[in-house]
């Protein structure tokens, strides 16, 4: 079977060359056999070469040899016809004009090939850089997480033995910074995993129960005015990544609100699209900062004074795109911010094309 495939490929690969060779011979024979009509097969010969070379670009050296040989043979025929008076003298000029036109097209075609190869090389280099970036994210997240967790455990042991309030507060600062390092490593690892092209564990999720569970998880740990508006809706999503993404949005809202502010989680489904919304009445985002909120490692100092990792919204946006959805933001300075994550419903996901996670990673930026 493999031999037949290789033989078929060889035949189709050289079929154009065989046809071109036969055409060249037939046109030269026609020039010799039809005195006075030499220009017709001569023109057809170069028209064929021009058309074929646009689809099948041969190497420069063999092309020059073939064109030179054809020009020499046809030139002799044309010279003999001019010498014996069969055709007019000016016709001999076409022996140089048509080959020069063909060679000009060869030059342009070779430039196009060189440009295409340069673009392909740039694409390959870009892929190599992306691969190095993925490996860096994965390796860095693992390298940070373990020592940070160990250090945090030892600081907690030290805290248990502290009696000086000032020393205890200093140790609490260390714990908070170690928590930031752990969050950073977790989100770096999440981004690397989302970009690894591993298949998502898609399942059918009820939006109302998901929103209510998320609210329950958060309202007992942070003092805010928590609200929920759980409408009906069913989406096809990866539960783990959806939880990480929505938690990042809620955490962002917590950072930029005070104890008296409101954080509201809601969901709905319209026209085959399920939407989860996280809205707050916090500080809001300045208009000049709004285009940057999805840039990796970009963040503003929040109300609570604890800067985030700059990766929470990156991971949320990448997760949304990997599940075939999107993440949008709207904000008014001093009034509040609203994030909306839209996902295909369970009924429409079969018709939707999930984007490659490499695309999501390139296009997805981030923040918290």
Keywords:
alpha+beta; five-stranded mixed β-sheet; two-stranded antiparallel sheet; 7 strands
Polypeptide structure, described:
The chain has 368 residues and is of the alpha+beta class. Helix content is 60%, strand content 13%. It has nine helices and seven strands. The strands form two sheets. The chain has a five-stranded mixed beta sheet, covered by helices on one side. A two-stranded antiparallel ribbon has the order 1-3. A hairpin with a 3-residue loop joins strand 6 and strand 7. The longest helix is centred in the middle third of the chain and has 68 residues, at 94-161.
- The chain-level structural class is alpha+beta
Strand content: 5-15%
Strand ordering within the main sheet: 2-4-5-7-6
Please, what is the average pLDDT? 79
Q: What is the rounded Rg?
A: 35 Å
The beta-strand count equals 7
Helix % is 55-70%
Task: Compute the number of helices.
Answer: 9
How many strands, which pairing sense, and closed or not: the largest β-sheet?
Answer: 5 strands, mixed
Distance between the termini: 57 Å
Q: Poorly predicted ranges (pLDDT <50, ≥5 residues)?
A: 1-10, 349-368
Order of helices and strands: HHHHHEHEEHEEHEEH
Shape: elongated
């Amino acid at each position: 079977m493999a031999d037949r495939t290789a033989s078929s490929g060889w035949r189709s690969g050289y079929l154009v060359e065989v046809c071109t060779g036969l055409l060249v011979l037939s046109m030269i024979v026609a020039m010799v056999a039809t005195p006075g009509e030499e220009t017709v097969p001569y023109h057809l010969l170069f028209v064929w070469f021009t058309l074929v070379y646009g689809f099948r670009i041969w190497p420069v050296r063999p092309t020059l040899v073939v064109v030179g040989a054809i020009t020499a043979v046809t030139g002799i025929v044309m010279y003999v016809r001019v010498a014996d008076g069969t055709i007019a003298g000016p016709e001999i000029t076409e022996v140089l004009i048509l080959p020069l036109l063909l060679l000009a097209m060869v030059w342009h075609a070779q430039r196009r090939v060189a440009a295409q190869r340069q673009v392909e090389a740039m694409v390959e280099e870009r892929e190599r850089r992306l691969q190095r970036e993925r490996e860096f994210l994965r390796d860095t997240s693992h390298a940070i997480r373990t020592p940070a967790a160990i250090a945090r455990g030892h600081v907690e042991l030290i805290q248990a033995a502290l009696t000086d309030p000032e020393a205890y507060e200093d140790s609490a600062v260390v714990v908070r910074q170690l928590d930031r390092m752990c969050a950073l490593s977790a989100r770096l690892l999440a981004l690397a995993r989302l970009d690894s092209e591993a298949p998502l564990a898609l399942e059918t999720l009820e939006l109302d129960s998901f929103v209510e569970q998320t609210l329950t998880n958060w309202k007992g740990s942070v003092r805010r005015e928590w609200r929920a508006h759980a409408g009906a809706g069913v989406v096809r999503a990866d539960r783990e990544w959806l939880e990480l993404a929505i938690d990042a949005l809620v955490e962002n809202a917590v950072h930029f609100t005070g104890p008296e502010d409101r954080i509201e989680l809601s969901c709905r489904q319209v026209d085959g699209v399920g939407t989860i919304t996280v809205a707050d009445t916090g500080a809001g985002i300045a208009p000049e900062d709004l285009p940057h909120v999805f840039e990796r490692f970009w963040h503003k100092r929040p109300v609570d004074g604890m800067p985030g990792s700059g990766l929470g919204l990156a991971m949320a946006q990448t997760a949304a795109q990997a599940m075939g959805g999107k993440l949008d933001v709207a904000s008014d300075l001093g009034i509040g911010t609203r994030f909306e994550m839209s996902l295909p419903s369970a009924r429409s996901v079969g018709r939707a094309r999930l984007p490659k996670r490499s695309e999501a990673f390139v296009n997805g930026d981030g923040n918290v």
